[in-house]
Design goal:
heterodimer, A: mainly beta, 6-stranded mixed sheet, 5-stranded antiparallel sheet, 11 strands, B: mainly beta, 7-stranded mixed sheet, 4-stranded antiparallel sheet
Chain lengths: 112, 112
């Protein structure tokens, strides 16, 4: 099993719809979880951290399910500008950057 | 603040040539990392540094060297370029360790 797995998509979703995707991780000791957004041919940027109790930032909601070892990202009222690749990032054993594992990303396209 | 800067943006090398990818950050971050991104593989850690004078290997260090003489700069040296090193290279800095990664705009390298 890969350390971090994501459905590569593409997800093609009409504008205004709600879309959700998951990311599974294999290391039950992982403590930190993140969603990054990467636009085509650009660098990744942090979208949001994922907290144990779940967290929301505007139209974006992130949740963590430790029992099933996955995190999710929900986007409500999707906009054309949400089209991007979403990377799941999970930490492993240790305390530094060297223990961050990036998923391969889920590609999202919002259709007008 | 410029954040994280990388040069060059694009580079074409012939097999066997060497070159240095430059990375600099002005956020006074102790932690810096080099990643490569290949289709279907996600971001993979090449080398990282936890402070000036300290570097360590990541997941895919072979064929690359790094040095960290100052907090600001973290160059990546390709010793003898191979076609397998064709990739997009991202430099990132962060504080605290394992926290939000700030990425540079990337260097697209092609080795023929």
């Amino acid at each position: 099993r890969k350390e971090v797995e994501q459905d590569p998509g593409p997800f093609n979703v009409p504008e205004g719809a709600t879309v959700a995707f998951n990311c599974t991780y294999s290391n039950s000791a992982s403590q930190s979880f993140f969603w990054y957004r990467q636009d085509c041919r650009k660098e990744p940027k942090l979208l949001m951290s994922v907290y144990s109790s779940g967290n929301e930032d505007g139209r974006f909601t992130a949740q963590l399910n430790r029992a099933s070892q996955y995190i999710s990202l929900l986007i409500r009222d999707s906009k054309l500008s949400d089209s991007a690749t979403y990377l799941c990032v999970v930490d492993g054993i240790g305390s530094g950057n060297e223990k961050l594992t990036f998923g391969t990303g889920t590609r999202l396209t919002i259709i007008p | 603040n410029a954040g994280v800067t990388q040069t060059p943006k694009f580079q074409v090398l012939k097999t066997g040539q060497s070159m240095t990818l430059q990375c600099a950050q002005d956020m006074n971050h102790e932690y810096m990392s080099w990643y490569r991104q290949d289709p279907g593989m996600g971001l993979r850690l090449i080398h990282y540094s936890v402070g000036a004078g300290i570097t360590d290997q990541g997941e895919v260090p072979n064929g690359y060297n790094v040095s960290r003489s100052t907090t600001e700069d973290f160059p990546l040296r390709l010793l003898s370029a191979a076609p397998s090193q064709t990739s997009v290279y991202f430099c990132a800095s962060s504080y605290p360790p394992g926290g939000e990664q700030y990425f540079g705009p990337g260097t697209r390298l092609t080795v023929t």
